[in-house]
Amino acid sequence: MKFQKPNREVYTTFIHCSASDNPAHDDVSVIDQWHKERGWSGIGYHYFIKKDGTIQEGRDLEKIPAAQRGHNTGSIAICIHGLEIDKFTEVQLLALENLCHQINRAYIEMTFHGHCEVNPHKTCPVINTKEVLGLDSEGYMV
Questions:
Q1: Which DSSP state fits 66?
Q2: What is the mean pLDDT of each run of 10 residues along the chain (142 residues)?
Q3: 50 is catalytic
Q4: Is 115 a catalytic residue?
Q5: Which of 3, 8, 43, 131 has the largest CB neighbor count within 10 A?
């Protein structure tokens, strides 16, 4: 998968987890259905990363995500399938890292954050995004 920069203004990327390690939930269509059941028009995330490292496209990148209340404008939203830190796979985290590097290269100023950084009631994405993505204290790739 090759990242294509959208025409809308983007300055940050948020990382989420699906809050499920159930193998039956390891597909973008499941998340799309969950979000429709909540009354949304469809999946709120732009990308979904399966346990096998496959990156699936969700919401059109030209559309603002519905993923982190109050922080959707100017963002890209990525969801990785999983809930427990020790159940994320190496290929899945490598796919996340690769996608984020592609996004970073497309922009001059881009920060990356876990959902929990803007919602103190969430532990999502449960991984240490700064460590996994090699971020500085402000969320920039170093």
A1: S
A2: 92 96 96 94 97 98 95 97 94 97 93 95 94 96 92
A3: no
A4: yes
A5: 43
